[in-house]
Amino acid sequence: MNGARIALALLVLLLLPAVAVAAPAGKLVIAQGVDPTTLDPQWHEETPAYNVLLNIYDTLLFRDTNLKIIPWLAESWKLVNPTTWEFKIRKGVKFHNGEDVDADAVKFSLDRIRGPELKGRQAGYFRLVTSVDVVDKHTVRVVTAKPYPTLENHLALRGHVMPPKHFRGRDKVFADRNPVGSGPYRFVRWAKDEAIELEADPGWWGGAPKVKTLVFRPIPEHAVRVAALQAGEIDVAVNIPPHLIAVIEKHPRLYVSKAPSVRPIFIPLYTHQFDSANKPVGAVEGPTRDKRVRQAMLAALNVDEIVKTVLEGNAIRTATPLTSKHFGFDRTLAPVKLDADRAKKLLADAGFPQGIDLTLNSPDGRYLKDKEVAEAVAGQLTRAGIRTRVKTHEWTTYLTQLVYPHKANPMYLIGWGNTTWDADGTLFPLFRSGNPQSNYYSPDFDGMIDEAQTSVDPKRRLELYARAQRLMLDDGAVLPLYQQMDIYGVNKRASFQALSSEQLVGVWMSLRDGK
Q1: Nearest one of 184, 156, 159, 203 to 510, comparing CA atoms
Q2: Would you tell me which CATH number, out of the four given (1.20.120.450, 2.60.40.10, 1.10.10.410, 3.10.105.10), belongs to the domain 261-485?
Q3: How far is residue 161's CA from residue 138's CA, in Å, rounded to a whole number?
Q4: 467 — phi, psi (to 5°)?
Q5: Could you give the C-alpha distances from 203 to 95, 103, 184, 384, 508, in angstroms and in order?
Q6: Is the Cα torsion angle 205, 206, 212, 216 positive or negative in sign?
Q7: Which residue from 232, 256, 216, 227 is spatially nearest to 489, judged by alpha carbons?
Q8: pLDDT digit string (tens) for 271-300?
Q9: Is residue 424 classed as helix, strand or coil in its secondary structure?
Q10: 74-81 vs 129-136, strand pairing mode
């Protein structure tokens, strides 16, 4: 037995030099459709920013390539009682500026995200947290007002841990431009609308990344992204349009990687107007304040046709703004079928026999063929007497000047990559009143969401989410469209696998030529 142990120890020692020389090398360039609106990890709610920031910052928990929650900065966690979670923080971890990652840093970060000073987009997910208590240097407890069964889901995506000395007393503008975390990559520079450059931290607690330099470039136009891929200017391109898949597959140096996304694409409809504090101030002005008009819009759509013609089959029709991957998805609900006659009758019953004129707001380049999908939706609505004009916007403007301040009335196209894998991660931020993204007000709906959020009975939660989805559809609060298929174009020199979470994790990527 002792001889075997000695032999094993010698083998480990012999292998150590080989590990030590495997330093990060080469540069990998990723093209997303848009630039992040911010690099403050607690301010936003957008995948392009998450994809950059998950490489700079660590969260307490994470999801592996099979989308299972795994230890990250927290090496273990448990429920002490129904309203208290305890997390054990890894020892010896440092932020990029040399500060210790410890319980104080976790407390600072979670207090910041839910504090009134930041007023960040993610605060609602932590509204049930009443205190974050330091037990010792590497133990922290999160106390909630009620049981919160999905807290660990959120902490696998949000709650990025930030160094207190670097950020304490600093405003959002500082955090936006000076990101410092403990992740596998350090921030180097951000040339707005050009490139974000990150450099590998060889001392990262999880092991040195294989790629030394990670660059994120925003390229909104699909064809330009593919052209850059063909020219060797980039290594990974997101949201490849279906009609260009064959171009990539025939290229000798490129390949396609696909995954059914957890992102449904849908169109929220304004039922109410909200003020700057996200409080409802009355029914929305205009024709869509009438429930029958909103129901007519749902009856006027032929989403199957859009999936077939615009997306060439690279999507899955959905009945609600959830996918079948989400806990709480109601499998008994069927998508609403096209019924143009019913749509016209509903319009007439609402007092608009001659039809109405509306605007559909949409981003351009953020999602797979988003502008083209919006135009197809507008065409179908117009044929039913709902004359619709599409207005496209640059991504940052779209979020900060329309969506978040409740100025995208009467409707806007959005995709929601809910990687909590729970209905709460979509129905709460997008439709529960009081949130920046919600323009729907129903006390009954709010009550269902609140109860489901705190119930520890899975059957009860499923029942509540099923009722909530049926209510919001009956109220005409949303036009569900489809579940997006994520399609990436990749240079063969890069090792890359598409994930349903849409995450771009640099430490899971490598360059086959090592350059």
Answers
A1: 184
A2: 3.10.105.10
A3: 13
A4: -65, -40
A5: 10, 21, 8, 61, 16
A6: negative
A7: 256
A8: 999 998 899 999 999 999 999 999 999 999
A9: helix
A10: unpaired
